[in-house]
Write a structure and sequence with these properties.
The chain is mainly alpha-helical. It has 5 helices and no strands. 76% of the residues lie in helices and 0% in strands. Helix 2 packs across helix 5.
Length: 148
Amino acid sequence: MIDNLFSDMWEGLVDRTSGPLKFRFFLQPSVAIFLAIRAGLRDWRQGKAPFFWDFLADSSKRKDLFRDFKKSVGKLFLLACLLDCIYQLIVLHWIYPLDAVIIATFLAIVPYLLVRGPVNRIATRFKHSVQGTEGHTPAASPPTKAHV
């Protein structure tokens, strides 16, 4: 029963990559990645820990982090659900809400979560490497006539 459910869902996912509204498989993850980069850089500028790690590790911040997450990607998730429902009406002539939520999660939420934290980490490492080279003083040069 469950094997059948997952195989049907996988076939439905593969079928969605061709046919009407297939552009969303490129557009929605791209928008999610753009939003994640923007949020990750904002986290870096504010000195925050990487998002997903902070969400898992610090239970006192979860409510605020979830609110920020909803604000950042909530509309994209709803749009992904809506587009999948439209696809289902066109192709299947019926709406399967669970399928729409699963597809929207893979197209909007997963790319966002995979990118936001690493952007913060990369920006932090890049900043440290740039600061390290700027603060490095060259070896002392021999004194010139003006110094003697």
